[in-house]
User: Fold 852_t:CDS:1 from Cetraspora pellucida.
Amino acid sequence: MVDTATTLAKRQPALAQNQYLCTICNKTYKTFHGLIRHENSAHRSYNQPPADLISLPPQHIEQFKRLLVNEIHKKLSLHYTKTGKQLIKFPCTDSEFVAVFGNYLSRFSPAKRTYCCIFKDYNAEHTLRNLLGDEQWGTRYYQDNQKSYVQLYLQENKIDEDVSNIKTIKVIPPEMTVEWFQEKIKDIKGHQTLGGQLRIRFRINQEHYS
Ligand SMILES: [Zn+2]
Assistant:
């Protein structure tokens, strides 16, 4: 497992001795952690992707979307032990990530080169349908009118029950987060490899439909 914090800390190049630049506002910091603290407080909503991404052919983007939908469907099981929180890890470039999710970034961190999107509420279902180019991106149907699906909001007939539960149990509204991280491995001889990983977190639910 890559120690992300360590690799990130080592990746940011020093400008001069002990200087780390915020590329959003050009302030400099003495430590990488100082820069990260600044980004977290001053640029928490910054969501402009970097300019050095590769522009991909539309066919490539469509193919990539199909791979993502396939990964989601792998998780849409009917087995009762497979309900609840899901995590998909998927190696890809940030050019691929931004080609699909770039218009919906909640945050981009230039210092760490991480991206984050959050999809929730009823409208998110429609957004993801368009984004992924598949009407059934988040639902898998099974025999006997059963289905397994990505939950993005609480259903109306369950709201009363969930609201009353808030007093006793903490109900977290469902959402889907899509993030991209850069990974770096450096060996003892100084050889480096760079990777990128997309991570999708969501909750699945199963029910009978009529
Ligand atoms: Zn700044």
About this structure: The first helix runs from residue 4 to 11. Residues 22, 24-25, 27, 38, 42-43 surround zinc ion (CB under 6 Å). The two ends are 45 Å apart (CA to CA).
